[in-house]
Specification:
Immunoglobulin-like; 2 domains
Length: 132
């Protein structure tokens, strides 16, 4: 049986007509939108935290050898951590006040998915990093 949001296709007594054919007609578009989101937005490489306007981003993503990190903190030292999917710290680096750009070598990391997280009190949002 197919299930969508608790509704069941089938025969009485467990049959419901809701969500009906209208939802099923939307499924191909939803699948396409989800695939597009995962391929682009899901690997977003920028965090913008309001109201304090601390931002950081990096390029390229996916990465092979090094990333170029940009951040806008001119008053604080910011510590960054690179964490593997199991929550283990695999790399760390720091930007000093007014150090708005930094190149970080990642050539020793194994290919895979990682997360970059800042120590800023204004942001604990990790960014996904794909190492190829």
């Amino acid at each position: 049986m197919h299930h969508i949001s608790g509704h069941r296709d089938g025969c009485a007594p467990g049959y419901t007509t809701c969500p009906g054919q209208a939802l099923y007609n939307l499924l191909p578009g939803l699948r396409n939108d989800t695939e597009t989101y995962i391929a682009s937005e899901c690997l977003s490489s920028q965090v913008d935290v309001l109201p304090h306007h601390f931002t950081y981003s990096f390029t390229p993503n996916p990465v092979s050898d090094a990333i170029s990190l940009k951040q806008n903190s001119v008053f604080s030292t910011i510590h960054f951590s690179i964490i593997d999917p199991y929550g283990r710290l695999v790399e760390k680096f720091t930007t000093l006040p007014n150090e708005t750009e930094k190149t970080v070598l990642l050539d020793k990391l194994a290919p895979g998915l990682y997360f970059i997280k800042s120590s800023s009190q204004f942001s604990d949002l990790p960014l996904r990093l794909l190492k190829i």
